[in-house]
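Supplementary Methods, section 5.1.

A reviewer requested that the exact input to the structure prediction be made available. We therefore reproduce it here, unchanged from the version used in the analyses.
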Amino acid sequence: MCTGGCAKCLGTTLIPLAVLCTLANILLFFPGGEVPEESLHITDEVWCFGGIVGSGVLMIFPALVFLGLKNNDCCGCCGNQSCGKRFAMFSSILFAAVGVLGAGYCFVVSSVAINRGPKCNTGNEWVYPFLEGNYLSNHTLWDACQSPKNIVPWNLTLFSLLLIMSGIQVVLCGIQVVNGLFGTICGDCKCCGCCGGDGTV
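The structure derived from this sequence is encoded token-by-token as follows.
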């Protein structure tokens, strides 16, 4: 597959992942699927906006750049022979790095949130009743959270989804870094003759 075509495939995959991460982060603002009485009742890590900013907004820019590489003029930027596909592929490496940072941020925030557990009402106060992820292997500890209802599986499921999807985004952006290096050094295959081109750019 040509480097531009590969980048387009990566971009096409990143956009739905960014949308899903954004939605997951938004749902976390409603503990247990309920509207909180106070913002202080929301788990602190939700306010880090890992899914909205890290794996959402910051991921849209690389995705759009990757999608545009397929249609980039391999004969130059507006006719300028000194740039073109090679420069576009090089710039995609920089955007891929931004994507790695954004998704990495979401991955770290989600990991911390899963390990810490949700903030909930234990009957007397709103606290974090779990220590060092001990609730992950002992479901009987979940009863410590009296409200919101089902807050533990709610937070665990959504943060786990963010963890998995941001991990996939890191891998995809990492692939584009390698793909971009090939495109920068060798040019796109469409410009090299294998797709009917006359030569490399």
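Residues 75 and 81 are 6 Å apart (CA to CA). These observations are discussed further in the main text.
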